[in-house]
């Protein structure tokens, strides 16, 4: 059912027209596809490539920026912390100084008050002594007038004086 | 299988109308697939655009494995068109063969040596053309005497051998596949038990033929780029 011819190259006849037709069709197909399919497809692939490259670049840039900002923030935070520390330190120092000052002032004040009180006591004492002296004088006058009223013996006189003094002591 | 080719004379040239038909059909299908899948192009590819981009990358990798992209980039479109056309041509004969009035009309266009040899000669001619254009005639001529002068006859034979093997490899694979398919479908499948017996080997051979069709398209483009690289790169 097979003749050998089926397996022999070109046995069915040489059709040179097919060569031209195949060539022409392939070239036409190539040109058409280049214009309508591969060209636009390559364009969009190139566009995507550019897009991705751009995106990567942008991401890289923003990453660097973020890193820089983070560094800045960290620096700022550090500074702020340092400032706060300094402030606290200052306040403490100031507080210490103030306390010292207040204590000193209080001490001085108490000293002054003590001084004043002492002086007052002294004055009071002086005044009391003066008053006493006056009293003694008055009493003396009183005694003298009594003596004048009545002749006294030496013993009586002594007794009278003692009484008077004792009375003065009681008065005190 | 004893079918005649529908020959016709036109302008003094002989045309195999079956070839003319199938070449046209294959070209139309390739064109339709390519244009339909690249109609709605988007930055985020979907569906068929992905497939087309995969083919592009595939061919790009074939070219890159043979030469640097700066010289090879200009063959990208040739490579994609070639691989699509050859693959579609190989697949066309697989689902069925149509005969009418003892003439075989529907078959793979690549199951005819005149078609594959046309493609092969075209490719080899292109390699020579680009060899001269990119390196200059002097360098191109000197390449025939490298690495040793006495290899010149071998180099000449190599050119013809390359052309012949490139075309006939494709033709042989596809034609053999179709012959066996025809045998399985036409001769084994006679009577009820014949049909039953033919199903499994036919299925197996169909699957294998699809594989061969793809592989042969890949090999054709691969060798095209290998020969191209031999002619256009200076490091050979």
UniProtKB/TrEMBL annotation, chain A:
Keywords in alphabetical order: ATP synthesis, Cell membrane, CF(0), Coiled coil, Hydrogen ion transport, Ion transport, Membrane, Transmembrane, Transmembrane helix, Transport
Subcellular location: Cell membrane; Endomembrane system
Keyword Transferase in record: no
Topology in membrane: Single-pass membrane protein
Presence of the UniProt keyword Cell division in the record: no
Primary location class: membrane
Superkingdom of the organism of origin: Bacteria
Coiled coil: 56-127
UniProt GO cellular component terms: endomembrane system; plasma membrane; proton-transporting ATP synthase complex
Positions of transmembrane segments: 20-38
Its job: F(1)F(0) ATP synthase produces ATP from ADP in the presence of a proton or sodium gradient. F-type ATPases consist of two structural domains, F(1) containing the extramembraneous catalytic core and F(0) containing the membrane proton channel, linked together by a central stalk and a peripheral stalk. During catalysis, ATP synthesis in the catalytic domain of F(1) is coupled via a rotary mechanism of the central stalk subunits to proton translocation.
Protein family according to the UniProt entry: Belongs to the ATPase B chain family.
Quaternary organization: F-type ATPases have 2 components, F(1) - the catalytic core - and F(0) - the membrane proton channel. F(1) has five subunits: alpha(3), beta(3), gamma(1), delta(1), epsilon(1). F(0) has three main subunits: a(1), b(2) and c(10-14). The alpha and beta chains form an alternating ring which encloses part of the gamma chain. F(1) is attached to F(0) by a central stalk formed by the gamma and epsilon chains, while a peripheral stalk is formed by the delta and b chains.
NCBIfam families to which the protein is assigned, alphabetical: ATP_synt_b
Entry protein name: ATP synthase subunit b
Organism, as annotated: Jeotgalibacillus salarius
TrEMBL record, chain B:
Location(s), subcellular: Cell membrane; Membrane
One of the record's GO molecular function terms: proton-transporting ATP synthase activity, rotational mechanism
A Pfam match: ATP-synt_A
Membrane topology: Multi-pass membrane protein
Main localisation: membrane
One Gene Ontology cellular component annotation held by this UniProt entry: proton-transporting ATP synthase complex
Keywords for this protein: ATP synthesis, Cell membrane, CF(0), Hydrogen ion transport, Ion transport, Membrane, Transmembrane, Transmembrane helix, Transport
KW Cytoplasm (keyword) present: no
Gene Ontology biological process terms from the UniProt entry: proton motive force-driven plasma membrane ATP synthesis
Family: Belongs to the ATPase A chain family.
Reported function: Key component of the proton channel; it plays a direct role in the translocation of protons across the membrane.
Protein name stated in the entry: ATP synthase subunit a
Source organism of the structure: Jeotgalibacillus salarius
């Amino acid at each position: 059912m097979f003749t050998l011819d089926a397996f022999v190259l070109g046995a069915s006849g040489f059709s040179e027209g097919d060569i031209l037709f195949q060539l022409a069709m392939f070239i036409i197909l190539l040109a058409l596809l280049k214009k309508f399919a591969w060209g636009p497809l390559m364009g969009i692939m190139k566009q995507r490539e550019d897009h991705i490259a751009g995106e990567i670049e942008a991401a890289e840039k923003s990453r660097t920026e973020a890193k820089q900002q983070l560094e800045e923030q960290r620096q700022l935070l550090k500074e702020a912390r340092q400032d706060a520390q300094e402030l606290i330190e200052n306040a403490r120092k100031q507080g210490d100084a103030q306390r010292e000052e207040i204590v000193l002032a209080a001490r001085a004040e108490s000293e002054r008050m003590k001084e004043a009180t002492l002086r007052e006591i002294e004055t009071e004492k002086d005044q009391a002594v003066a008053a006493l002296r006056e009293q003694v004088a008055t009493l003396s006058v009183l005694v003298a007038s009594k003596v004048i009223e009545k002749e006294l013996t030496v013993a009586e006189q002594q007794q009278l004086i003692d009484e008077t003094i004792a009375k003065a002591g009681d008065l005190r | 299988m004893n079918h005649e080719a529908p020959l016709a004379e036109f302008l003094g040239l002989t045309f195999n109308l079956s070839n003319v038909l199938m070449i046209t059909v294959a070209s139309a299908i390739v064109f339709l697939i390519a244009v339909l899948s690249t109609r709605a192009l988007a930055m985020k590819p979907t569906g068929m655009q992905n497939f087309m981009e995969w083919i592009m990358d595939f061919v790009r990798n074939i070219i890159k494995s043979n030469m640097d992209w700066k010289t090879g980039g200009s063959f990208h479109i040739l490579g994609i068109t070639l691989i699509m056309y050859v693959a579609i041509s190989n697949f066309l004969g697989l689902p069925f063969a149509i005969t009418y009035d003892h003439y075989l009309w529907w078959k793979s266009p690549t199951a005819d040596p005149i078609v594959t040899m046309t493609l092969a000669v075209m490719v080899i001619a292109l390699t020579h053309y680009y060899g001269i254009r990119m390196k200059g005639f002097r360098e191109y001529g000197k390449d025939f005497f490298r690495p040793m002068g006495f290899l010149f006859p071998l180099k000449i034979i190599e050119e013809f051998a390359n052309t012949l093997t490139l075309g006939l490899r494709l033709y042989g694979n596809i034609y053999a596949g179709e012959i066996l398919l025809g045998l399985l479908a036409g001769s084994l499948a006679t009577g009820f038990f014949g049909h039953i017996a033919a199903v499994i080997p036919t299925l197996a051979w169909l699957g294998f033929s699809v594989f061969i069709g793809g592989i042969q398209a890949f090999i054709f483009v691969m060798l095209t780029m290998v020969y191209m690289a031999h002619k256009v790169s200076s490091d050979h």
